[in-house]
Amino acid sequence: MITDISQIKDSLVGDDPGNWLLQGPTKRYINNYHWHQPKVGIVASYTPTAQNVEDHFDIFRGVDQIESFAQATVVSCGTFSQCKKMNVVPETLAEMFVPTFIHIGSVYFHSYLEKGQTFINIGFIKFFKWKQMVCDGRIYKVPQGLNLDEYFKDFTEERLLAYDLSSDFLLIAELFDITGRGIKKDMFENLQQLQQQRHNG
Amino acid sequence: MDRKEILAGLIEVLRTVRTVDPAKLENVTEETDFMTDMNTPSTELINIAAKVEQKFDVEFEDEDIDELGSKVKDIIDLIIKVKARTEAERGE
Fold first, then answer.
1. B89 or A171, greater pLDDT
2. The complex's ipTM?
3. pLDDT tens for each residue of A20-31
4. Contact B43 A103 (CB under 8 A)
5. 3-class secondary structure, A131
6. Closest Cα of chain A to B43: distance in Å?
7. Inter-chain contact A179–B43, Cβ cutoff 8 Å?
8. Closest chain B residue to A199 measured between Cα atoms?
9. How far is B72 from chain A (nearest CA, A)?
10. What percent of chain B shows pLDDT beyond 70?
11. Is B73 helix (H, G, I), strand (E, B) or coil?
12. In B, which residues are within 8 Å of A201 by CB distance?
């Protein structure tokens, strides 16, 4: 756990996702950060477990792919940049703001992922302002046995934006306008009340 | 710039927002609520704020948006506050 701002590095690469994704481990769908430029985007991987595919034909659900992508991009990148901006640690930020998943644009699935098949989320930041982040990107299945840290060691912004990967990465999904926002806790509660009032007529 | 002029400018901005029903702009007042009266998605408020920045040549801080209410008058109040803050910073 990050307890002091000095523990936050210049990027997420090599950091423990548990430091940034504060939900419990069974709902955390990122294992490693391999490439990250705070104003540009990220490459982060995950390998679905038996628990992740239980009761679903040993297939990692599409909705969980979207969740993984959002965790890699709007949650991890957004939290990192906001912590840097406010000079606070993630736990402090979480005490002040509720991380909300507020919009999904379009998602196109091209293939599927089975238990044990590592994939990468490759996402870039389209908009980040007032704690709202919008990202586009793709999910690729990783060639078996590939060392992702080594592969992305010299990756660049240009290559990220062009999805410049070797041909043995298999396209799984394309995602557009994945949007998250940190909403101040009291405002979030007001919003909930407002929604309830609208619901009640 | 008075409140009436700001409201007119704000309505111009809202006409460019895809999720805002143009028919609902006919009777907009300062008491109109984006969420309850116009059914504007909460995500869209950020896009509206970004367009308002451009239209009125102001720059909102994180805290301005954190505290922003959902009524038209809240945005008008914010524009006036931020314009005054900007002028004070420029020493005007």
1. A171
2. 0.81
3. 999 889 999 999
4. yes
5. coil
6. 7
7. yes
8. B36
9. 16
10. 99
11. helix
12. none
